[in-house]
Amino acid sequence: xxxxxxxxLAYVGLLMVLLGGRVTPDLLLVVAALVTIALLxxxxxxxxxxxxxxxxxxxxxxRGLSANLVTxxxxxxxxxxxxxxxxxxxxxRTPTEALQSAFHVTGSVSPxxxxxxxxxxxxxxxxxVFGYLIWRRSQSVYYRYAMAMIIIALAGYGTQLLFPVxxxxxxxxxxAAISVQDITxxxxxxxxxxxxxxxxxxxxxxxxxxxxxxxxxxFPLVGAFFLARVSRRDAVxxxxxxxxxxxxxxYLGQHYVVDAVAGAIYMVATCAVVSLPxxxxxxxxxxxxxxxxxxxxxx
Length: 299
What we know:
The protein is mainly α. It has helices at residues 2-18, 25-39, 44-49, 51-61, 65-69, 76-86, 95-103, 111-121, 126-137, 139-162, 183-190, 195-203, 215-227, 232-251, 257-274, 280-287. The chain has 16 helices and no strands.
């Protein structure tokens, strides 16, 4: 694991050098965190939760790489596709424009705005919660879940790197502007008691041209898929959370509907891959290393 992390750091460093990226303080924070993980990778508790900080830190380390790798950012063409697909049901507008027109008042923050921002910012928290619920019942299912999360994250990051798509809130910077507000920024600016959250949204934003596919849409669906193997009730709750996330990312202008659909397709493909019999031996070996004894430890 330590070797893999060091190799990833070397890869990101090489990209930064070749593509002229700047080493910013937040990237140094990422590097420090990864080095710490590498040094502590022999600790049992860290090995169990390692996929989740790696996914988050890798996302942050991709800042600005798309803009250097690919000259064309997709914005107007995706908005046009949205209008073609959903215009008949939204008055010729994109779904984001229609939702914001119906529920958002520019210059004010409503309870809906605040609630959906909280849902959106739960992107890296919910997968850990789902992972814990799965782990408590079956360690073998948990390892499949963790592998699925890593695979879908890397597939999504790779697509976002080579096929950059501006979210609706940034469409005007790369093509014809659409009538969409950055509600998340408005909400965080209104809550002055949380300056760290506001700073983080503006400065720890990862790859801002990573709308397609939407991992916000994919991650909770992965959780629901594996929760269904251990708890139907928790799986239903995860599906309800997924529906909230889908509404939030479109309403807030963070993703198009087609981004969310693409995320669902990536989720189906990834879960099918990790469910193949070829993974059984790997999962059995991982699950045989008992760091703790989860509920239902007979599995």
